[in-house]
Each structure stands twice: as structure tokens, then as C-alpha cells.
Structure to design on (180 residues):
């Protein structure tokens, strides 16, 4: 995926060094990470810093991690993150998170809708959410994903609420899916 991506209020871009403190604040906030599939060591300052550095280092490698900052388009302020990873052939799983002080403004919906729109041109797009995470369900639905009910995640082995959009632009035009 080519970044930056701009929406009316946001920019989805690569993480920058200035984002580190806000990223660490998010990762070490138990209320923010309650539903996320990070282990306890990643929810520490050292663990979050290591994760951040690994993502930034991966951007110019063959094993790029597709995790991006969501920033206010005018000020450049980091407000959250989103991204995707391969799930199975032709399928990607997305994630989205907004730092607590910026929630309730529709930012997750705005960023995720744009992310889904870009990815759905080439892949089936999925989001797995904790069954209890109603705000994440609302974002998935507002982004064009359909609620498929409870499903077992192949990597984590936990049951989650599956949201998916499986008709790619390539499917509509009779073409083939392309992996990035």
C-alpha cells in the first residue's frame, strides 16, 4: 500500500520518531489495549518502544510491517494507528486504534473506511474484534465490512467477531487478486 493516504481530516503515513511518545502512551494504557492481542511485555514502555522501532525499521525491508500512524492532517499530531497483515491467500486482516484522548470524533471510522477502500481493490478485507468491543464493531460496519458473527482466528486461536468484505475490485472486473 502506498502511503501517505489523506482524508479530509487525517493522514495515514509511516510512523515518525515524533510519534513514539504517543504510541508508547497508547500501548501502556490498559484501557486502550484491553481488547488488543498484544502480550503483556509489549504493553510496557520497553516493549512498545521495541515494537515501534521494529515497525519503522521494516519499512524499507522485504518483510515490511504494514502498520501506520494516523495523524491530524493539519497539525501532524499522532492520533492513532492502523494497518494490515496477510491472513491467508488473498485475504488481509486490518486493525485500527485511536488514542483515548481523540476517541468519539469519528477518526477511526474515517481512517478505516479509507484503508478498507484501498485494500478491497485487491484483497478480501477482514477485521477480527473482541466480541465485547462494541466501538470496534461500529467502526468495522461504518467502513463497509459485514458482520459475519463469531469465528476462530487462525493465528491467535481465539474466538472473535469477524467483519469482512470479500468482493474485490478485481472480482468485479473479472481479474485476479494481486498480492502486495
Amino acid at each position: 500500500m502506498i502511503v501517505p493516504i489523506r482524508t479530509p481530516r487525517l493522514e495515514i503515513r509511516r510512523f515518525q520518531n515524533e510519534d513514539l511518545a504517543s504510541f508508547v502512551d497508547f500501548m501502556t494504557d490498559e484501557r486502550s489495549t484491553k481488547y488488543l492481542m498484544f502480550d503483556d511485555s509489549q504493553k510496557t514502555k520497553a516493549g512498545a518502544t521495541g515494537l515501534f522501532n521494529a515497525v519503522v525499521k521494516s519499512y524499507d525491508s522485504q518483510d515490511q510491517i504494514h502498520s501506520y500512524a494516523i495523524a491530524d492532517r493539519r497539525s501532524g499530531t499522532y492520533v492513532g494507528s492502523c494497518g494490515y497483515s496477510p491472513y491467508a491467500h488473498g485475504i488481509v486482516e486490518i486493525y485500527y486504534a485511536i488514542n483515548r484522548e481523540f476517541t468519539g470524533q469519528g477518526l477511526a471510522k474515517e481512517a478505516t473506511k479509507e484503508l478498507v477502500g484501498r485494500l478491497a481493490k485487491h484483497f478480501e478485507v477482514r477485521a477480527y474484534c473482541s466480541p465485547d468491543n462494541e466501538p470496534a464493531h461500529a467502526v468495522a460496519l461504518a467502513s463497509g465490512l459485514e458482520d459475519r458473527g463469531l469465528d476462530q482466528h487462525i493465528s491467535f486461536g481465539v474466538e472473535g467477531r469477524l467483519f469482512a468484505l470479500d468482493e474485490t475490485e478485481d472480482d468485479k472486473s473479472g481479474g485476479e487478486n494481486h498480492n502486495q
Summary: The chain has one domain: 5-173. The CA atoms of residues 112 and 143 lie 6 Å apart. The first strand starts at residue 5 and ends at 6.
